Structures are given as C-alpha cells and as structure tokens.
Amino acid sequence: MDLSKNKLRTIRLKPAAFITVLAVVLMTVNSIKAQNVASSKEGLAPKEKSIIIISSLTAQGEIPELKKQLGAGLDQGLSVNEIKEVLVHTYAYCGFPRSIRGLQTFMQVIEERKARGIHNNMGKEASVVPADSNKYERGKKILGELTGTPQPEQPSGYGAFAPAIDTFLKEHLFADIFERDVLTYGQRELVTISVISAIGQAEPMLKSHLSISLRTGWSPAQLKEFVTVIAPTIGKQKTTAADTVLNEVLSSNK
C-alpha cells in the first residue's frame, strides 16, 4: 500500500518536474536570444564599415584607395546594387562630380573582377514607387519619420529664404532617394554622416544627422565606432570635429 502511494506520488511529480525543466530551458533560450540581440547592437558589421569607408573616400575623391575599398565591400557581402545605391546617395551631400567619379570607378572594379572570374552578387533592385501621389508630401512625411518631428505646413529658415531648396529636399532627397528600398534608412544615414564628416565644416548638419542616426537604430556605441572607422580616411582634424559633435548629440540625448 505504501509502495503504491510512493509510485502515485512519483507519477504526480513528473508533470511538475517537466514544467520546471521546461521553464529553465525557456529561460536559457531567451537569455541566449537576448545576448544575441545585445551583441548585434554592440558593434558595426563588416558591411556597415565598408559603407562608411566607401562613402568617405567617394566624398573626398580618393580614387585609388576607393577602388580597393569597393572591391573589399563586395568581398564583405555588399551587393553591386547596394554599393551603387551608396554611391548615388553620396551625390546629395557631396555633388554629382564625386558621385559619378565613384560610379565610374566601381564600373572598373566590376569589370576587373569579372575578368578574374569573380562572381559579383547583383542584389535586389529598388521597388517601384507609385507615381500618382504627391511627392512633396511623401518627402515631408519621411523627413518627419526620420526626425521624429512633424513637419510644419510652411517652411522656415533657409527653406523660407530659398523655397526652391525646400522643394528639392522634400521631393528629391527625402522622396526620390530615401524611398528607394535598396538601403535602409539606417544605412542611408551612415552614408550621410560619413560624407558630411569627410567634407568637413558642416557641423550643424552633422549634428542633425547623428541625431537621426540614433532614431534609425544605431546605438551610441556604434556611432562611437563610426568615428573610429572613418578616422583613417579623414585625418585628425575632421575626426576630432566629428567626435566633438557626436559627444554633444549623445549628451543631449541622455
């Protein structure tokens, strides 16, 4: 009789034990997932570092080194279309001459790799954007999403002083360019802060886009690493300027 009770007690304990073990397993899995998420936010990926370097060198017209880094970017996993998009995006911040020179250099890199039998991953094309909507309003909406601030009905500051540039910014930069989904908003901001840091003497715009970079998902640690990655391409003076602006942005966002 006692033995039967013991057996019954043992049987009854099994579900409880199972639940305990399951809970431990789930906690372990969740802990691993959390660690993976945390580690993914700790540093910049090799592709992201390539975007920074390519953007900086393009902005400065450093063609021999750019040629090397374009090939390195492909080797790090960037697709042809992603690099093309990076180079196209740069023109909004450093002009057509630098951007087109970068694209011409990239064409050479691709042809030389083909000649060596290296397969280049083309990657996805940009999705088609409906042409029947108001481009200015689309651009204004995207700018509001990036800054976290609803855009006023009437432009102010330089936009009011020169209304044409307000139209160009909204319709072309933030609609035509930012709507292209080959790159994420976060990747586009990496291109932007890289170009602005490389050309120098544009601290107010750099401050604005570093703040946007935080909003698009880059962590303070990653933006600190951004300064470290770009430093060898822009020199001590511009690195110090970029680091100073970043510290101001991080302090104001605490």
TrEMBL record:
Top-rank lineage group of the source organism: Bacteria
Chain ranges of the Carboxymuconolactone decarboxylase-like domain: 37-102, 163-247
GO MF, any single term: peroxiredoxin activity
Coiled coil: none
Entries under InterPro entries matching the protein: 4CMD/NDH-1_regulator, AhpD-like, CMD-like
PANTHER family: 4-CARBOXYMUCONOLACTONE DECARBOXYLASE FAMILY PROTEIN, CARBOXYMUCONOLACTONE DECARBOXYLASE-LIKE DOMAIN-CONTAINING PROTEIN
Name used for this protein in its record: Carboxymuconolactone decarboxylase-like domain-containing protein
Native species: Dyadobacter helix
